[in-house]
Every structure is written in structure tokens, then in C-alpha cells.
Amino acid sequence: MNQFLFKQDNGNELMLFPHILEMGVRKNLSVQLNAFPEIVATRFCVYYVIDGKFDWQVAGRRSIILPKDAVYVMPGEKIGGVNGTLDVGTVAWIHLDIDCLLDKGRTQGKWSGFSESEALTIEHIFRMHRAAHLPILNEVSRIFQDIYTELQQREVGYASMVNQLLDELIIVLVRQLTRQSASSRDFPKKFLQLEQMLRQNLAHQWTVEEMAASVGMGTTSFTERVRSYSGFSPLSYLINLRVTEATRLLKQPDLNVTDIALDTGFYSSQHFSTTFKKLTGYTPREFRKKNLYL
Amino acid sequence: MDCFISIELGTNAVRVYAFDTNGAIVGFNRGAYTTFHPAADYSEQDPEQIFITMLFVLKNLVSEIKSTGKYQIVSLCFSASMHSLLAVDRNGVPLGNAITWADNRGKQETKRLRTKALARKLYEATGTPIHPMSPLLKILWLKSNQQEKFEKTSMFLSIKSYIIMQLTGRYVIDLSLASATGLLNIHHFGWEQEALDYAGITPTQLPDIVPISDSSCKLKRQYQVSLGIGPETKIIAGSSDGCFASLGGGIMEEGRATITIEDSAAMRIIGRKVLQDEGCRMFNYILDEHYYISGGPSNNGSVVFEWFSRQFANYTDSYSDEMVMRDLLLMAEQVDAGADGLLFLPYLLGERAPIWNPSARGVYFGANINHDRRHFIRATIEGILFEMYSIGKLLLQHRDISQITVNGSFVTAPLISRLLADIFNIPMSVNQHVSAVSTGAFLLSAKEFGIYRSLEEAAKSITLHAPVHPDPANHAIYAKYHQLFEKLTDKLSPEFELLDELTLLSDKH
């Protein structure tokens, strides 16, 4: 690919694509000081190194980026060359607005073909990995090339093609991310991250597939792994967390029992009551009475 | 047949075992809970999660046991990790998470106390070394850093006291766990006023002290129903994990000791007298009214070896953790004693006994061009075991030890127990019982039901594998390397401090 730069406010290549903020390729023939200062990304930024060797800070971590490596950062994460320097080599990038992926309620500006549940899983994965250096990702090179060609030649159906390619780019990144993090040596750490994610959103009706995907594993091996690590099946572990949180909330006098049931992910206060009583012998209301002497 | 249940509230998980009257395990269940590290040096657990997890696990085990139709559950006996602290308000509602033994936030408070003459006095009175692990120092930290929470605190509990409170409605702490708080006088078995004064709390803010065999707490009716356990089932207060592991190691006779290596590690002896260490380096906890458990804990047990294998082992071929461990041990066996001059100081998590230095760090020393992966594996293992020997040498100054029982999955691997025998020059016997802690709980429960007349008699029932004997030639090599190991540890002390300051500085930037 030759050097180019498409920008929203400059030229009309991106007119049909308000979600692509910028796309470009730069061939850097000599070390440029202050050409790539560390900045906080405001968009979802993907970089791909075509040749050369780049020394960058990615979300506070120093990474050496080599040809065929991809890097992305979520909005709010920092990226830039070490000391602002841009090293010798060729790099391609694309900046996207993926809010519509991450904000399910928003249909305006929706360009992606992902179903709601796919989008949700992808969102969880990106939330857990807010930036990453993904080494040797051959597919990205072809996708960049194809997007560029489509934008240049504008053949029939090019708008759909570009959006499909963007979906493909996101899938390639997410899949590599989950593969990279699935290594068994990191499981305890992943499990901790998963638990924190579950605790933050207990009201969501988690499925095992979603939980497995967010740590980058298939459902079967995930279930097996969770069982051997925690002694519980994934869904039992989740119920365990729900009752735990409900127990805590019941001790706060100002909360309504039905709200507690729904906030902790039970279908109804009846469902909550049955589950809670089976384990503790108390209905939630009795439990609250016993634990509040005010 | 009667059946005794042991509930172990461990560092990472609750383990529940059911024993028949012969001490055979007839049921087991476990459930993990999470440790949170919201900041460096912090280590916390969610008390409600521990309680709910315990209920789940216990309920499942009880229904499994009852479904066989063969057993009558006569008692539940509790054990827990030492040194945890949970503050609750006047309604018994937790004020945040429990702080675990591994939490080091009280570093500054520890340094301050150590400069005072009071430090030695408190150590001698309470048996607990002056260290951030101690609930005394945790309370002091709370007082100086979270004053509002400190003032709202109606009771300072251990995790086990909280769990027993949920089940029975009473605030109690057994004598063993109480003796690991830094707040109990181990000679008079009552709260140590001087420690309480220094912490700024009153005895009414602490649970009632009960003997480890106490069964005066009664299970609330609701839990009788939900768990399927009748009112006649005794709730035995139990002990700490460390004290039960020593009892379950069967070492009550003269000349015996245990080495436990789990994530963390400890070497312990049982005796009728407190062990007086000039350097304040050994703990003295209470087993019961007649016996003390003395020894030293290390932070750097199998957690160090797991760290090593995560960084350097080969995980590519979807290996299980056991396979990875086996491969590493096979490679370590290809190298001779002393790893051809490569030494490792294992202080990845700072260290408790015998140096009590939270700033200590890991060091590989003596690497040369001929060393390869195998030497590093060997040196890593030897470093962990050398540290146990440093604790052992202190104990050997006070007691003759001629046989040692080893517990824990790491140390019971044949290579490890052999190396340990060589390093100590003392035979090592692997405990046949799956969990020494729960075996201890069983022995106490069985004594309460008259199966044994005393704990001494109960401890004699423990069967051990035939001991692994030391190789004198290897011991001679290890004795020399261990001297160097101790010298290095000592010599690097100021450099550890310096490094601590440097990293604190760069954290701030």
C-alpha cells in the first residue's frame, strides 16, 4: 500500500462512513522526533505495522511492534511513540467510532451487522482488554488493503463491503485477543477479571457462552476449568455471587426487596425468595428482620 | 455410624470433609472464593461470599452424606486461616471486606511499633511477631487511616467468628485463633490490656474467648432446616489452620516437627512451654490449655514455584498444571545438589520468618555461562527449601528434632521431600492424610465424642509413610550452600530497603 490519508473533514472518501474518523498509511523514512506523541485516544484506534520496528507506549506499557503486528486502544487509553518518536517503517491505521457496538440502546449510526448478543460479547471482551498488542495478525493486512481498494474504486455495493470488512476487522481482533488470553497459565487472573465483571453487572442474564467468550474459551473447556478451579459450575458460581450480593444488600435498610432481587439478577422476587430460602432457611424479608436491629 | 464434619475456611477456598469414626474420609466438597488486591500490599476477601460459599458447599455435602443412609452427622468443627480482621458495625453488618493474613498495609505501623520497647513486651505477652499480618497492626492501620470506619466499628472479628455469628448468633473466637491476633495474653489466656490500649480498643469490641472444644453455640433453626442438620449436632468452635495442621501431623511427642508447604509455608513444633526467642522471630500460638504451637511462617512456599512455572514452563501443548509441574521436577532431577553453584533467594512476597522483612525480594545468585533452564528450576526449588531450613535451624536451637512430618501438595512430591531430608539431615515422613488441617479437626471432634481420651492419644493414631532418609553427602554440600544463602540474605538487607525506596519513588511518578 502507498501512503494515503483519508479524514472525515478533508476530502469525500469517507462521506458515507461517519463512523470511520480517519484512515491512513504512512511510510516513515527517518526517525521523526515528536511525530507521534503519547495522546489519550478519543476513538477506537487500530494500528498495523507493515514494515520496520516501532517502540511504543500502549496504555502505559512499552511494546516493540514488529511487521504484521496489530495494536488497538479503546477511547480513554493512551498511545504514542516512546518519547514521542516515530521510528522508521510503514504503519497503517484506522480510527473508528464503535459507540453503537458498545451502546446497545443506540440504533442511530449503526453500521455493523452484529446481532445484539454478538455485540454484547464483543463489548465485554473489549471492556476487559482496553488495549492490546496482537503479534502476527496476517489477516489485518488484507482487510486494510481491501477497505482501501473499496474506498478508492467505489464499485457497486462498496458501502456494504466496507462495513462488512470493518466487522471482519473487529472479529479478527477479538478472536486473536481471546486466543492470546486463553493460555491456562493465566486462568486465575482471567477468572478474577470475570468475577469482577459479573459483580459489576449481576442484573444481566449471563449465559455460559458469554462468560466463556469473555475469557476467550470455548464453553466446554471453560465449564471444566471453572469447575476444577472453583468447585462450582459457572452458573452455580454466578448464583453464589447473586446470593452473596443480595445478602449484603438486605442488610441495608433503605433498599426494597424486589429491587434487590432484580438488581442481583433474579427473574422475580418470587424466584429470589425461593433460591434464598433454600440456602439460608430464611425468606429475604425474614433474613432482613433478623439482621437489622434498628 | 457417626460422622464428623470439618469446615476449613482456607486462604482460597472452603473445604468441607466428612469423616467416619475411624477417621476415614467419606465425603468431600470445596468451593473457591476470591481474594481481591485493590492496591499493592492489600489483600481482602468478601465476608458474605465466604459465608454463602460455605453454605452452598456444606449443604451439598450434607445432602450427599445423608443420601447414603449410613451416617448420622454428630458435629461440625471449624478451622480458619489465622490473622484475618473484619470490622462490623453495631448491627453486625460488615464495614467493607475482611483483611487477610497476606495483607501488608500496616507496614508503617509495624515500623513505628518496632522502634518501641513495647514491641518486645507485646511479643512476649502475645506470642505473635510484630508484623503487618497481625490483627493488632491491622487495627492500628485502621485507626490511623480510616478513622470514621474505626469509630463505627462495634466489633473486631476474625472471618471465622463472623461465620459462626451468622450460623449461631454469637460472637465467639476460639483460643487458638485468638492467640494469633497479637491481642491475647498467651500465658493467662485473656485479652492483653496493654495491646488493646495500644490499639485503642476495649475488650467489649472483641468476641468471647472459648476453648477449641467449645460446643455451646447452637445452630439457628433456619439453618437447621436449610442444611438438614438437627439441633443435636454439636457446633465445635475448633482451631486455626496452623494449629490443626500440627495436631493432624501427629507430632505431639518429643523430637517431632511438621513442615507444611502450601502457597505459604511454615515449620512448627508442639510443646508445653512457650519458646523464648531472643530475636522475636518465632510465633507461639495456643493449641489448647496445655499445648503451644511454636515455629515460623514463610510467605514463599509453592506460590514461588507456581510463579516460576507460569513464567518459564512450557504450556504450549495444552498441558495440565500437574503435567507442567511433573516436567519441571523431572528437569530439576537432572541437576546435582547445589545446582552447580546457582542460588536463589525466594523472597518474591517479602518474607516473614526468620527475617521478618516485607521489603526482601527474590534473587538468583551465581549464574554462569554453563547454567541452563534445569539449573534455574533446581535452584528455585532449593531456595524455597533453604528458607524452610533457616526457620528449622532456629527451632533446632531450642529443641531436638529427629523426625519431621511434611504436609501439602508441593512438599509431598518425592523429589521435594528427598531434598528437604538432605537439606535438614533429618528423615522426612509424608503425611498419608489428605488434609492435615481437617485431620486435626477430626481428632479434636473424635476426642469430644470419647473415641480418644486425649489429644495426645488422638495424635498417635496418625499414620505416616515410611520416612525418606537423608543422604549425608548431599547434606554436606547443602550445609555449605545454606551458609552462603544466609549470608546473602543478611548482606542484601540494606539493598532490599534501597530497592523498596526506589520502587516507591517510581510508583509515585
UniProtKB/TrEMBL annotation, chain A:
Keyword set, alphabetical order: Activator, Cytoplasm, DNA-binding, Transcription, Transcription regulation
Domain of life: Bacteria
Record flagged with keyword DNA-binding: yes
Family annotation (SUPFAM superfamilies): Homeodomain-like, Regulatory protein AraC
GO molecular function: DNA-binding transcription factor activity; sequence-specific DNA binding
Domain HTH araC/xylS-type: from-to ranges: 192-290
Ranges in coiled-coil conformation: none
SMART domains noted in UniProt: HTH_ARAC (SM00342)
PANTHER family in the record: HTH-TYPE TRANSCRIPTIONAL ACTIVATOR RHAS (PTHR46796:SF13), HTH-TYPE TRANSCRIPTIONAL ACTIVATOR RHAS-RELATED (PTHR46796)
Name assigned to this protein: Helix-turn-helix domain-containing protein
Origin organism lineage: Bacteria, Pseudomonadati, Bacteroidota, Chitinophagia, Chitinophagales
UniProtKB/TrEMBL annotation, chain B:
Alphabetical keyword list: Kinase, Transferase
Gene Ontology molecular function, alphabetical: kinase activity
Entry-linked Pfam families: FGGY_C, FGGY_N
Domain of life where this protein originates: Bacteria
Gene Ontology terms: biological process: carbohydrate metabolic process
Domain named Carbohydrate kinase FGGY N-terminal: residues: 5-248
Ranges of residues in domain Carbohydrate kinase FGGY C-terminal: 287-446
Family of the protein in this entry: Belongs to the FGGY kinase family.
Name of protein: Gluconokinase
